[in-house]
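User:
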Amino acid sequence: MADFLMILSEAAGAAGEAHADPTAFGLNATVWVSIAMLALLGILVWKKVPAMIGASLDKKIAEISKQLGEAEQLRLDAESLKAEYEAKLADAAKEADELRARAESEAEALVAKAKGDATALIARRKQMAEDRIAAAEANAVAEVRAAAAKAATDAAAALIAAKHDAGADKALIDQAIAAVAKS
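Assistant: Predicted structure:
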């Protein structure tokens, strides 16, 4: 370790002295770096690296353009689908309005028909009730007439029985027989 420290101290002491620039074949380091750079660039041009980079960039540009075209087509398709669905929605809303209007008119027609049927039913029932009342009145009149006829017959029989005796009956019977014989 002591050797290492000694080497460091010699290097530090030597740093204070002037250095000579390294040269090879009479050219300093800057020239050699420039020559190496020119050689590298020459090799790159000779191997057509710039053309490969340009082709790669052109390929990327074409790919991006293709993707942009596909994206534009997708956008157009989406807009057409949107317009189609908006039209379908408008048609559905119009159809719903038509169905509602038709249902309302049918409901009104049913209500009107039901009112008409109810009125007709009431009129029929009223007529039936009036017919029953008239039949009951006719039956009551017939019963009253029958009762009146029976009462009149009974009263006439009682009157005849009270005013006529057997002799008067014989004279009436003889007159009736004689009237029948003449005819």
